[in-house]
Write a structure and sequence with these properties.
InterPro entries: PAS (IPR000014), PAS-like_dom_sf (IPR035965). By secondary structure, this protein is an alpha+beta fold. The chain has five helices and seven strands. The longest helix has 23 residues.
Length: about 160
């Protein structure tokens, strides 16, 4: 029982709090819990009835940790690649560019957050052929491109 969290609930004026916590089990393995504390009833003497529920979320936390480690390995491999690469969501939001991309083009995610921004800033010859309304990365799959770099140098990209 986490008496500090119960005290926090009682003194906060809120009706409930939710939090994740962990502890070591007898095998010295970390067990994660998702806990909800709900104030059911308070009395005029400062007492209260608190309903607390906890569920073991260790499997979820372990999967999240494995996924994070996998993502870190993936980004490390992409970052070490000698060719410029970017990763975008289906909606055109650019979520990652590797070091080679930044070195060659000068663009970072903050300067080109979407494929549409890339078309409008750096790939104007493609934009002129297909229009600037698309945000689909599939247009960048084949062919030679004229890239206007961040420093305004023009490079042919194949």
């Amino acid at each position: 029982m986490d008496f500090i969290k119960i005290d926090k609930l009682l003194n906060s004026g809120k009706d409930s709090i939710v939090y994740d916590s962990h502890s070591l089990n007898m095998n010295k393995e970390t067990t994660w819990y998702h806990t909800s504390l709900q104030r059911i009833k308070s009395n005029s003497f400062g007492g209260a009835i608190i309903l607390g529920t906890s569920i073991d979320i260790s499997n979820i936390k372990n999967v999240e940790l494995k996924l994070k480690r996998s993502e870190e390995r993936f980004k490390s491999v992409i970052n070490q690649a000698p060719i410029p690469m970017m990763i975008s969501e289906d909606d055109g939001t650019i979520i990652y560019v590797n070091n080679s991309w930044i070195e060659v083009s000068g663009y970072t995610i903050s300067s080109i957050p979407t494929i549409r921004d890339l078309l409008n800033i750096g790939l104007t010859n493609i934009r002129d052929n297909i229009g600037s309304t698309t945000n689909n990365a599939s247009i960048l799959t084949k062919g030679e491109y004229e890239l206007i770099c961040f420093d305004q140098e023009v490079k042919n990209w194949d």
